[in-house]
Amino acid sequence: MEMTKYRDNGQFCSGHVACAGCAEALSMRVILNAVGEDTVGVVAPSCTAVILGGHPMSSAKIPVLHGTLESAAASASGVKRALKAQGRDDTTVLCLAGDGGTYDIGLQALSSAAERNEDILYVCFDNEGYMNTGGQKSSSTPHMATTGSTPLGKATHKKNLIEILAAHRIPYIATASPSHLSDLAAKVEKAKSIRGTKVIIVLIPCLPGWGVADNAAVKTARLAVEAGAFPLLEIEDGVHYSLTVAEKTRPIDAYLAEQKRYRRLSDEDRAALQSEVDDAWSRLLARAGKDLNA
């Protein structure tokens, strides 16, 4: 993928009510500037909805429709079809939702839109929990992470939404991080140029929900990428995998140490999580056609 340097065109306004140091507001700024003015937004109830607010107090320069938690992808599909009926085929419909509205409550609508290959760009801000309502676990919450509803650590693994979406054979799926802003902008620009359903999942370390310092969200996101806990990748047509960052350069310990939600872990727990990350990384390299012995 050709990397382009991020440019700010003033599509995201200051004065929003995100937490100080929030990586979601930073990511939203990049996404809105990359997608451009000829865009209509659809937002599910989430931190995103709070940041963007209602007209005329939204922090986005584009028009934004606020919908229900379970129907974001369906609403975006309807908006796109209405625009097509007006002859505005090239107007981008940008759907913004959290992991609760994507992995869980909104999965049926997203799956249906993907099955129909609706021409929408769906962005999930994945903070790995219901952080806007008290920090409860979602199916995106990782194994052993402490949340408001899993005080001793989540007993199950994070849902592999990437593989679920790939099974739909949609044109484009990608992961992105606020630690790699030019990569995020390039993936948004690429997705915008593709017809059909495009999904980008952006890792968002939640300051209060993860127990991360106010100035450490981007650092924590970078550690997730470097440890292979959140690989940066692209999948085209459900079968062609490629890695934006092709090497895992550090163990998971530094990433875990940044977060209070993992402070209960024993040495055995950390070793188990490292093994899980290593296994997942090996499978991903195999899918991307990499030589595991290189």
What does this structure look like?
With 294 residues, this protein is an alpha/beta fold. The chain has one domain (23-287): Rossmann fold, CATH 3.40.50.970. It contains 11 helices and 8 strands. The protein has helices at residues 23-35, 47-52, 72-85, 100-104, 107-116, 161-166, 181-192, 207-210, 217-227, 253-257, 267-287, and strands at 39-43, 64-66, 92-98, 121-126, 172-176, 198-203, 233-236, 240-243. Strands 2-1-3-4-6-5-7-8 form an 8-stranded mixed sheet, sandwiched between helices. Helix 1 (23-35) packs parallel to helix 7 (181-192).
Number of domains: 1
Rg measurement, Å: 18 Å
Oligomer: single chain
**Reading side by side through the largest sheet, how are the strands ordered?**
2-1-3-4-6-5-7-8
- Uncertain segments are none
Major beta-sheet overview: 8 strands, mixed
Order of helices and strands: HEHEHEHHEHEHEHHEEHH
- Gross morphology: globular
Pfam families: TPP_enzyme_C
InterPro entries: PorB-like, THDP-binding, TPP_enzyme_TPP-bd
Keywords: Oxidoreductase
Protein name: Thiamine pyrophosphate enzyme TPP-binding domain-containing protein
